[in-house]
Every structure is written in structure tokens, then in C-alpha cells.
Amino acid sequence: MALGERVRLAVAALLYASGESQVDLAAVLGVSQAQVSRRQSGAAAWSLADCDSVAAHYGIDVLELLAGPTRATESLPARRRRPLGRTKARARRTTAVQDGGVW
User: Fold this and answer.
1) CA–CA separation, 17 and 14 (whole Å)
2) What's the whole-model pTM score?
3) Residue 43 per-residue DSSP state
4) Do residues 29 and 58 make contact, with C-beta atoms less than 8 angstroms apart?
5) Nearest by Cα to 50 from 25, 73, 19, 17
6) CA torsion sign, 41 to 43 to 44 to 46?
7) Model confidence over 8-22: pLDDT tens digits?
8) What's the distance, CA 26 to chain centroid?
9) φ and ψ at 40, to 5 degrees?
10) Residue-wise pLDDT tens digits, 19-49
């Protein structure tokens, strides 16, 4: 597997494991969601500076990110992991129902 593909898969795995979106990651990197999307699709490459920022954001070593999705998610600190069974959409829906709103 090529390095670029490993990074894309690792970023996707970290987004999923943390419950974050491309919008969240874009804000951390100071870029648009469209730029993150282009990097994730392979239309643009993740720079070394991006990789360093992504790794720092998730609290992992950049070498763990470059090693691929399994190693990256295994290195993800427990405090950064989303609670099992609760996605952001589900959490919003639950809150709306609890507040008497209609989802």
C-alpha cells in the first residue's frame, strides 16, 4: 500500500473512531472541508505538515499515522474515542427528542 493511501485510510479511521467530521478536522488544520475532502479522495496530497498537525490533534505520534489505519487507531488515546454506539447525529437526535423537539 502506498504511503498516501495509508495516510488517507488512517485519517478516515481516526475521524470515525473519534466521531469527528471532515469539518472538524478542517477547522483544526485551518483549511476548508472541501480541501480535506480532496485530500481524502486522493485528488490532493496530505503534506508532511498536515500529517504532523493531524497526529498532534489526535494525540498520536506522526509515525503512527504514517503506519496506517490500524496502528493510528490503536494509538488513539481513550479520551479521544467516541463513546460506543453514539454518533453525532444520534446524539443530536436524542437531545432534540429529550428537549421536546421533533427530529
Assistant:
1) 5
2) 0.80
3) S
4) no
5) 25
6) positive
7) 999 999 999 999 999
8) 10
9) -70, -30
10) 999 999 999 999 999 999 999 999 999 999 9
Whole-number Cα distances in Å, 3 to 10, 12, 67: 10, 14, 8
Q: How far apart are CA 66 and CA 78, in angstroms?
A: 20
Which runs of consecutive H residues, i.e. helices, occur in the chain?
A: 3-18, 22-29, 33-41, 48-58, 62-67, 69-75, 88-98
Nearest-angstrom CA–CA distance, 80 and 13? 13
**Helix H or strand E segment including 46:** none
> What's the DSSP call for residue 87?
-
Give the list of residues 6+ apart from residue 5 with CB closer than 8 angstroms, or none.
42
How many CA atoms, within 13 angstroms, populate the side-chain half-sphere of residue 76? 24
